[in-house]
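Hello forum,

I keep getting stuck at the same step: I have a sequence, I want structure tokens, and every attempt I make locally crashes halfway through. Rather than fight my setup again tonight, could one of you with a working pipeline run this one for me? It's a single chain of 731 residues.
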Amino acid sequence: MPAPTADDIDYSDIEEKYQVHFDDGFDTTLVVDGVPIIDESKLERLLTKFCREFARKGVTIKPGDVFMPWNDATGKSKGYAFVDFRTVDDANLALAAVHNHPFDSKHTFKLNRFTDVEAFANLDESYVDPEFEEFRPKEHLRAWLGDPQGRDQFVTYRHEDVEIHWQGKPSQSELAYKPDWKEPFLYVAWSPLGTFIATLHRQGVRLWGGSSWKQQQQFAHPLVKLIDFSPCEQYLVTWSNEPIVVHEGAKQGPQFFSPDDEGNNMAVWDIKSGHLLRTFSTLIDGEPPAKKQIHWPALKWSPDDKFVARITPGSMISVHEVPSMYLHGKKSLKIDGVIDFEWCPQGDKDKEDAAKDAKNGDANKVKKARENMLAYWTPEIENQPARVTLLAFPSRTILRQKNLFNVTECKLYWQNQGDFLCVKVDRHTKTKKSIFCNLEIFRVREKDYPVEVVELKDTVTDFSWEPKGERFAIVSSNDPNLGNPGPGITIKTDVSFYQLEHASGKNDFRLLRSLPSRTSNAIRWSPRGRHVVLATVGSSSKSELEFWDLDFNVEEISNRREPSKEDWGSGIQLLGTADHYGVTDVEWDPSGRYLATSASAWTHTLENGYAIWDFRGQEMIKLIQDRFKQFIWRPRPTTLLTKDQQKLVRKNLREYSRAFDEEDAAEESNVSAELLSLRKRLVDEWNKWRATCKKESSEGNKHGKDHEEEKEEIEVWVDEVIEQTEEVVIE
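Reply #2:
Ran it on my machine without issues. Output:
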């Protein structure tokens, strides 16, 4: 009898046991509308991109699962497709994730179930009253702005505890909330307008907010290390030093990473929906992730949240439209040698003009708001000089270029209203043995964007514009230890203030005043301008704070009929000095009333804690806390008052201030009454104690007379030398 072969073995029982049963109905079929109309030559490319877009949303399909009807008369597709999925769950996931997904700039996917087509055709058109759901009010995410005392908030992070406090007058400062976040996290961060507070966990990022401080949103990015919000709080960027890995069986959907995201390590999210928009990679092939130094933020947002840009050093700037994340114009800005760039901020006037344009819509053909603008610089390449360029976007029009020579490094500083751009240029001599600095200042609001040059002899270590002003401050130094500071070495610096002079038709920046022989290395302007703090940060030997007012006698000067030349710079006045040992961070509150200094355990472990000062340098609070890590003021959104309303408030300020004066007087009287009662109670207690002591003393004397003991008198003789002379006899 011949031996049985593999074909003779019956596998029917095994096949029946492990057979995968697919859904045979039409519940697994979806109709996808919004597909581009193409001819047959482009079918393969379209199907490849079609499947890739589904995969980006966590839905895996193959070209064989897609059926695309054709118009035989024209030889082109009909603009929709049928997609078969393996299970009903896959179809439901695709319907939720891909519906309204933009395929490109002209086409958006619209998904429907195949079984719904017949239902829509036979839809009963008779009107039925809708059922009204009971209204459930949601908590306001900006409720803290309605505080009757107009107080600001700040968050502190110490060891594993987070506390959120109100800050006001001493009687109004109190704990607002102490969250019970049991999961460990890396650090906390406020969103730019103060709506959310973010915590970074091992699993991802969580956003908290509202008066109850409940979780508002979460983003699943494992091992996240850095985050960055867009200026209008619509989007969030997360970064990890570890590449994304999608494990088998991991959750799929618009809020999770898909297999196409593997290998990337930076993600862009929509905050409202929690959906993932796109991922990028900042890793370099062959380089260990831990040794890669990231320049953060790696993505830079336009001030209106319409664009996000990323630089490829030395070659190009890629600008993506948001939320589609498509490359604007399908091409990057090719710029040979580009090193860095910055978007121009939106000023208050720009925001008003943009709001008017949005309100008028297409009826207003002439747009009032100016176009977005960015500035970038390129170094010297062969015979080409270094160059700074102003570029309008999205028109990509070059507005101004400035050539620079003998350039070592450039840094871009925009004024927060977008009126000025300062380019700090570090130059070297022809021998390259010494370095000096120039400030190239672009006046962006003027015709042809004129550029002014401020020449300096020393190296500039810090630069800062006055918010909403025409002044700036610099820290400069010619200390030989500047290049290689060591422990215990204090770098001597000079602080200089400059202001735009409008006299005699000139619009030049002129030195207002110089403060020599300082140790300050950081400039912190008040958000309202005028007041500035000069701080020595990060030093183990010095920790000085100087509080300055740049308009101390401005009212006196303005009342004069003819201001003299001597008045220039005379308004700068030192209000006070302070000291906070080991200070690592200095930050003003949004109102400009208080300044916070902190010493973080992330930098050193000596006298960690924080202090709060008023704008004159008077200490209000100082707490020394072990393992103290963070102090951050809660930002405020821009005011809803128009300029006319703000002028009216300033005009009637004395009238409004009466209510506050009455509150202060009532509080002072209450404090005085409490103080008097305390003093009276202490005096009464002292008198009672004194009477008790006198009574005990009198009783003791009486008892002593009854038991007198003999006393021994001891006489002590003390010799005192009045004068001593020594005579030497010479024979």
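Residues 282 and 295 are 10 Å apart (CA to CA). If your local run keeps crashing, start a new thread with the error log.
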